[in-house]
Amino acid sequence: EEQSRGLIILFTSSMTVIRETRDRCNEVRKILQTHRVFFDERDVYISEENALNLIKRLKLQGGMNEMRDDEKIQSLNESGVLRKIFKDFKKVEDDMTCGGCGGYKYTPCYTCRGSKKSTVINSPISPSSSSLLLSPSSSSTLKCTKCDENGLVRCKYC
Q1: What pLDDT does residue 2 have?
Q2: What pLDDT, on the 0 to 100 scale, is given for residue 79?
Q3: Taking the domains of the chain in order of start, what are their residue ranges?
Q4: CA separation for the pair 7, 31 (Å, rounded)
């Protein structure tokens, strides 16, 4: 993807049942934070869209320049090579966590407040009525189109 060139994307899993995978993800996250480089973390457990994006990238792996192995990243970090690789990447300005999401990168949907349902008001009972008294049949509950399957959206501040 053209818009992700020059951007570090870390695909992680917050599913704690598989502790080894979670620990490996946390280790790579700590390395990136230590180097103070800006990275976009995408949790494949939280969002199906992230999982599909990862699968798509792995299918294209022949033409992509990506590091996928946490042991390789640790080795490059210990040898000092990773510092040279990250030299030209965008750096994190400060240690402040985001005020919108607290560093989680996701917030409950602004439209449905995380319920995954949006209510649409059809029309008032009487067209001549100046008040908006509504009957139960005048509103419809639909699946929210703004959020993912967990009622979350990407933080607009991150």
Answers
A1: 43
A2: 92
A3: 2-95, 108-154
A4: 16
